[in-house]
Structure formats: C-alpha cells, structure tokens
Amino acid sequence: MITILCSGSRGDVQPYIALAQELKKLGKEVRIAGQRDFEGFIRGYGIDFYPIQADLKSLNVDPKMMKQAQNADNPLKMLFAFNKMKKYGSNLAGEFYDACVGSEAILYHPGMTIGYFAAQKAGVPAILASPFPIHSTKTIPSVLFYGRMKAKWMTRMSYRMLQGMLWMITKDSVKAFWKGKFNELPEGFRMPYELHNDERHLAVISCSNFVFPRPADWNPHVHQYGYWFVEEGKDYVPSVELQAFLDAGEKPVYIGFGSMFSDDMKDRLTQIAIEALKITGKRGILSGMGKLENLPEHVIAIDGAPHSWLFTQVSAIVHHGGAGTSAAGFRSGVPSIITPFSNDQFAWAARSFDLGVGAHPVPIKKLTVENLVESLRFVDQDKIRNQAKSLGEKIAQENGAMECASVIARLL
C-alpha cells in the first residue's frame, strides 16, 4: 500500500487524486490520508481514503487566525500567521503517522513532513510530492517571491524562506509527537526538502515545464513532467439552466474565487462583476458565490462545475490564482484574469501575465469595476487569446501524473 499524506483545500487535494489514479493504473494499491470532510470527494474517484478525524473545529482553531493565514498577502504576514497556527499540529501528527503504518512507500505534501520521518522509521521510501516547485535553484524565485522580487542574489534565499516557513508549521508537531511516542527525536531531525536526492528519496512536482521550466541545477532525483490533472468521469452533464445559458449567446466570462470566497465579500464582488460585465458587453458565469437573486439576463450563478469542462466553454477566466485553478486555466487555452488573495497566488498571477496569457495581476483588495473592465478588455486582444491557446496546446502534450507515477512504480 502506498500512502499519500495531503492537506489544504479541495483544490490542494485534487492533484494527489490524479497521482493516485495513475498509480492504480500501474497496479499499485494506494490511499490518500486527509481531513475527513474530503472522504466523499476522494472516494468518488475510486481512491481509498484514510480519514483524519482531527480538524480545525475539533482542534478549536480560532477562525480569525485561519482567515489571517488564508489572506496573508505578503511573506511577513504569512510568517506571523503560520507561526500562530503551528501549535495546533501536534494532534494531527499522530493521526497522520498512524496512516503511514504498514505502507510500502509514503508520499507527502510539503506541509506534512511527518511522512518523511515515518518512512525513515519504517525503512520505506519517502517521496516528497509537491503541488509547486519547492527545491532551491538560482534560476527563478520561489512561488512566495516570484513577481515581487527583483534582486537576483535573493533567488536562493527565497527558497530558504519558503522551505523554512513550511518547516516551521510542521517541525514542532513532529517533535512533540515523536518524543511522546519514542522518547527521542527522529534520527537526523532536520528540514527534509533538500534531502530528496537519491533513489529512495525522490521528489515529484506538479507543474508544467511550459509554465515554470524544470531548473537545470536541480538534482536528478527531482522529477517534474507536467501538472497532475484528475481524470474526470465522462458522465458530467451540466444543468438545463447552465446549458441553455451557454447556448444562448457568445461565450461568457467565468468569475469564481474558490475556497477564498467568504460571505463578507459577496455584495462587493458580485456588484463589481455585474457592473464590469455590463460595461464590456460580456455575459458572465458567477461560480461558488452562493445564491444570488435578481441577476441581469447576461449573468448566471452556479454552485460549480468541473474546471476541465467549464473552462473550455468560456472566453476568459477570472479567479483567485490557486495553484490548481491556475493550472486548469492554463490548460484550457483561455486567457486568465487572476486576482490573488494570498501566498503563492501572487506568483501564478504574475506568471500568467509574464507568459502573455493573462492580464496584469490585480490583488483582490484592490479590485474595482474600473480595473476589472480594463483587464477584460486586455485579455480580449487577439495576441493574448492566441498565446493562451498555444500554451494550452503545449500543456496538453504533457502527462505529469502518469510520468511521476511511473517513476514511483519503478522505484518500488
């Protein structure tokens, strides 16, 4: 049994489902360990699941603190927010360790370093499975600093900060659990990310080489072949209302902010979206923004739909810049307008603009009718549309999940 430890939102979990799907095709037993709320979602793809019972509610995590972490829009704020939250991890570490027992290999999200030490204890391969480039390089800044940092001498330092921040979240929980269970620290206890440098300590990365090319100065045991996209079932059928809306006119604009959206943003963002669409003469789909009443004829609200299908039905994608949503947007061949809230979302927004497939980033706090109108008009240019289409065609040539699964299967 291969066990995959993952954390985060639905969008964070989805790439690991894709990797698990490909491992199953290669005849491997695989399961994902994650928060119990995702059980139905993960099992819906035919993947075995190990539910972690502790969650934010049972751990009494302050909702305000969680919101601060989610909306930290610069590295210093992120550092303070994550430092406050680290004390809640010790209860989680024990459950994730139990999920690893009996595994032939352990894959872990960068925020789940208990996986590295559990694998070390059991004498099985430890595989870092990251949804973004994480290893140090001199060629391009980390996703915490890309688009914000100009000084080249700080490039490697940006990775030390990214890795240090992730390690800060997890090291105390691993330390507390290990001392409680084994009366000592794990052997060679230290930050593990750069220790993935031999055949039994591989790293696999979900990222397109057409978005962020694999750096030549990475060690050969770090594998990046493309994004990990879930293989969706063929049975998705849109609602009658959505299909009728799509059939009624030109391709609409998609506007959705995923798990970053909260009720206190609803009125402001809805009005900005509706007014900007009206001024530009565009039709629009508002996704995941709750029940909206008295919408004009050129706008429809939906709870959601698979991005792999929906993004190919629209003319532009306005979103928050989560790694998974950005990947789906790039693959669709449709221009993006990314309005980052926090963390690595600023990097995907800046990269979209630098690749010529999206508008200049507009942080969500600064989003107005005027700059959304400007962005919609910018991505309506033939040049931007053609570049977005070209990028989508290139990404379609990759199969990152299959390639990474094959590397893991060969190891085992």
Question: How would you describe this protein?
Answer:
With 412 residues, this protein is of the alpha/beta class. The chain is 42% helix and 12% strand. It has two domains: 2-224, 3-Layer(aba) Sandwich (Rossmann fold); 240-395, Glycogen Phosphorylase B (Rossmann fold), CATH 3.40.50.2000. It contains 15 helices and twelve strands. Strands 3-2-1-4-5-6-7 form a seven-stranded parallel beta sheet, with helices on both faces. The chain has a five-stranded parallel beta sheet with strand order 10-9-8-11-12, with helices on both faces. Helix 1 (10-25) links the parallel strand 1 and strand 2 (30-35). Helix 5 packs parallel to helix 6 (114-122) and helix 9 (266-280) packs across helix 13. It starts with a strand and ends with a helix.
The computed structural class is: alpha/beta
Shape: globular
| Share in β-strands | 5-15%
Per CATH, what is the topology of the largest domain? Rossmann fold
Number of domain modules: 2
* Radius of gyration from CA coordinates: 21 Å
Total beta strands: 12
Assign a percent range to the helix content. 40-55%
Based on the coordinates given, report the CATH architecture of the largest domain.
3-Layer(aba) Sandwich
Largest sheet: 7 strands, parallel
Mean pLDDT value: 90
Tell me, what is the CATH class of the largest domain?
Alpha Beta
By DSSP (H or I, 4+ residues per run), the number of helices equals 15
In CATH terms, the superfamily of the largest domain is Glycogen Phosphorylase B
- Helix-strand sequence: EHEHEHHHEHEHEEHEHEEHEHEHHHH
Q: Whole-Å distance between the termini?
A: 11 Å
Instruction: List segments where confidence is low: pLDDT < 50 over at least 5 consecutive residues.
Output: none
The largest beta-sheet arranges its strands as 3-2-1-4-5-6-7
